[in-house]
Design goal:
Layout: E1 7-12, H1 17-28, E2 33-40, E3 48-51, E4 54-57, E5 59-60, E6 71-74, H2 78-90, E7 94-97, H3 113-116, E8 126-128, H4 132-148, E9 152-159, H5 166-180, H6 219-231, E10 238-245, E11 252-259, H7 267-275, E12 280-282, H8 294-297, E13 303-310, E14 317-324, H9 328-344
Parallel strand pairs: 1-2, 1-6, 2-5, 6-7, 7-8, 9-10, 12-13
Antiparallel strand pairs: 3-4, 9-11, 11-14, 13-14
Length: 351
């Protein structure tokens, strides 16, 4: 893919699930791309991928691979990001990293463009893409926070298996087939590949995503807690999370309880806010059984919000149901959106 003027974009982890979504998203957007480079591990190097009808050969990701790159979208695991992202920056690239490697680094902006796009101006070469569950929640909550303040967030997630990778999806499908055929199953991946025990995900719910920390919360739950505070610039915000894996292939759902600062806010006021909020689609008509569901969100960039209710006991409390495609807004689309914001803000130059 070569044009006379534009950006040289690299996708690191191009053969993975999120990398593939990044490529697909870049194809659909109007980012001026004069050249695209696909990078991966040595194992996947040599694979042939397509970009806008042209064949691109995947190369092994090495420090020198980033010479001449303007923006590098990383989604190849935290260890790869820690090793190669600084090397890319040394060579003049801006890195948008989709792992947890740099998210809580105070010198690295953690960005959801609908919420804190201006933080991109503070970047030192690396920009972090938040956790998928955090992204969709803050997109839904930021308009409310701006209008009425926010003092508490309690979230329970219903997360899709695709968040754990392609092997986890395959395991879920294999387990479902085997269980329906009354065969024995031997779980090997979920809830966490490297943990002591593994459990059935087909026809089951696992209340563990990532490893448990000393405080009883999992690492995934702590990501949501800490990232929400950082993105919203509210270290004082009360946030708690319970993250749960469901046998759904793609699309994370969240039950979110919030408390606003202002009294006497109505459900209709919140619906009006969200109906015009950037990146949000309001689907909320209980009388017609209209509400967001993950099956309907797959392949879409937006965050879908519904089931908005005022709490029965707390005047400032509200309940929301939030759904999004975890591979798109939760990963690939948010990364590409950051690249578009860098261009819009004049932080990257088209050559």
């Amino acid at each position: 893919m070569t044009e006379t003027q534009g950006l040289h974009i690299a996708v690191v982890g191009a053969t993975g699930a999120v990398g593939q979504q990044m490529i697909s998203t870049l194809e659909k957007r109007n980012l001026p791309i004069k050249k695209i480079t696909f990078l991966s591990s040595a194992r996947s190097a040599g694979a042939k991928l397509s970009f806008k009808g042209e064949e691109v050969i995947v190369q092994e990701a090495k420090p020198e691979s980033f010479e001449g790159i303007d923006i590098a979208l990383f989604s190849a695991g935290g260890s790869v990001s820690k090793e190669l992202a600084p090397e890319a920056v040394k060579r003049g690239a801006i890195v948008v990293d989709n792992t947890s490697a740099f998210r809580m680094d105070e010198n690295v902006p953690l960005v959801v463009p609908e919420v804190n796009e201006e933080d991109l101006k503070k970047h030192n070469g690396i920009i972090a893409n938040p956790n998928c569950s955090t992204i969709q929640m803050v997109v839904a909550l930021e308009p409310i926070r701006q209008a009425y303040g926010l003092s508490k967030v309690l979230v329970s997630t219903y997360q899709a298996v695709s968040g754990a990778g392609a092997a986890a999806i395959a395991e879920m499908k294999d387990q479902a087939r085997d269980l329906l055929d009354n065969k024995e199953i031997e779980p090997k991946i979920l809830p966490v590949g490297g943990d002591k025990k593994h459990y059935q995900i087909a026809f089951n719910v696992i209340p563990q995503i990532d490893k448990f920390q000393d405080n009883g919360f999992t690492f995934e739950e702590m990501k949501m807690i800490n990232e929400t505070k950082k993105i919203m610039h509210m270290p004082e915000l009360a946030v708690a999370a319970t993250c749960v894996r469901l046998p759904v292939e793609t699309g994370h759902s969240e039950s979110v309880y919030i408390e606003v600062d202002q009294a006497d806010v109505t459900v209709d006021q919140i619906k009006d806010l969200l109906s015009s909020a950037p990146g949000v689609v309001l689907e909320d008509n209980p009388s017609e059984q209209i509400y967001p569901m993950p099956a309907a969100a797959v392949g879409k960039n937006d965050v879908f919000v519904g089931r908005i209710r005022k709490d029965l006991d707390e005047d400032k409390g509200f309940h929301l149901w939030v759904v999004s495609d975890n591979l798109l807004k939760g990963a690939a689309w948010n990364s590409v959106q950051i690249a578009e914001s860098l261009l819009k803000l004049g932080l990257v130059t088209v050559k």
